Each structure stands twice: as structure tokens, then as C-alpha cells.
Amino acid sequence: MAHSDEGGDIMPLAGLFLETIERYVTELQRPKTFKKMFDQLVARRGDNYFEWYRNCLRDFMDRLRSELKLSGLHLTMLDELSQDVFDQLREGYQFNVRSAVIADDLGQEIMLYHRHPSTASRNRFAKDDIVPTIAFALPNRRWNLDPYRRASRFDLEGLSDLWIQPDRPVRVYVDDKTGVSACTVTDAASRLADRLRALRS
After folding, report:
1. What is the mean pLDDT of residues 45-50?
2. Which of 5, 168, 147, 172 is nearest to 78 (CA)?
3. Where are the alpha helices (DSSP H) in 70-132?
């Protein structure tokens, strides 16, 4: 330390370094800054919001399948979302994509399908964060050209729809008779399975 001044006083440089670190830490504490850095990291990895959503969807469906299996209900995946379709639905295009069918051994079934984001989700999240809504459909009468019809709240005892929101942690928002509530993936899968079990009885 006796010769530390031979190359000049390093204290001003050290002070500047500490100030820079403090500013950086302060910026990290801001949600927008953290999200921007996270998005940049995701972009560098070659992933995108669609891939993130698709992974969340798969996790939810896997958990739901396990819950349903306990009651003899079977979940079968149908059409898988593509990047283009995902983007179109988020923009509000008016079409549906069949996601999965849940059926029992007697042939009773209910279909889950993706559609444009619900009003509830648009009211809660920014345009860049919204995702397609998952709604429910029941088999139509045989003479009807459309094999399914959208299930009403009356059909599902108040349940309307849900959406899986990529986040840290991931949340599933369920629009039920009590309003919209945020659940963990596990809780949402259990809650939906319980509702479908109750409809059978």
C-alpha cells in the first residue's frame, strides 16, 4: 500500500465504479428494466414469447391430464398452435383452434379451444403481454353442421374461460362465477379437474 500512489490515486476511479454499480442495482429493481433485460436474454437464446407460452401451456396440460386421470377422465391433445396462429389470435382474429378433448369411458366429452384474448385479459395486461384465451365447447346435436358449441356459464356452473399467462411465476387466470382469479399452474389444473368431475355426477 505504501506504493499505491505511484500510478496515481485510484480512489476517484473506485468511487466512480461504486456509483456505476449502485445505478445498475437501482435499475434492476425496476420491473420494466428487469423485463427488458429478460426479453433481451430470451432473444439472444433464439426463443420468443410464443415459445415461452407454448412451454407454459404444455406444463398446464400435463398437470391437468394427471389430475383428470385420477377420476377416469382422459385428455387428448389436438391441434398445436403455430407462431402465426398465436400472433393472429393475440391481434384479435375471430377464429378458434381446437386444443384438447377431455372424455370419459362413456363417450361424454368437452373440448378446450384457443380463441382471441378475452376482455378480462385485455383489461389486465398490456398488448404485448396478452395471450389467447382457452374456452370450452360441448358436443352439438347430431343434425347440426358444427360438431361443437361453446359452453355457457350455465353449462359449466359459472366457469367461462381461462388463460395461461407467462410470468415469473407462471399464472393461470380463471374466469369463474366469483370473478377472475389468479392461480398457480398446479392449483388451476386441480380446480378445473374438480369442476369437470363434478359435472359428471
Report:
1. 70
2. 147
3. 83-90, 119-124
The pLDDT value recorded for residue 154 is: 93
pLDDT value at 45 more than 50 = no
Within 13 A of 77's CA, how many CA atoms are on the CB side? 11
**Which residues lie below 8 Å from residue 156, measured CB to CB, with a gap of 6+?**
136, 195, 199
Distance of CA 145 to the CA centre of its chain: 32
For residues 159 and 176, the answer to whether their CB atoms sit within 8 Å is yes
The values of phi and psi at residue 160, to 5°, are -110, -65
User: Which DSSP category does 74 fall into?
Assistant: E
| Nearest partner of 157 among 136, 141, 172, judged by Cα | 136
Tell me the pLDDT tens digit for each residue of 102-150. 999 888 899 999 999 999 999 999 999 999 999 999 998 777 677 899 9
Cell of 34: 428487469
Cell of 181: 382469479
Q: List the grid coordinates of 33.
A: 428494466
Q: Rg of the chain's alpha carbons, rounded to an integer?
A: 24
Q: Which one-letter amino acid corresponds to residue 44?
A: R
DSSP class of residue 21 equals: H
User: Rounded to the nearest 5°, which phi and psi values hold at 62?
Assistant: -65, -45
Cis amide linkage into residue 12, ω under 30° from 0: no
CB 157 within 8 A of CB 199: yes
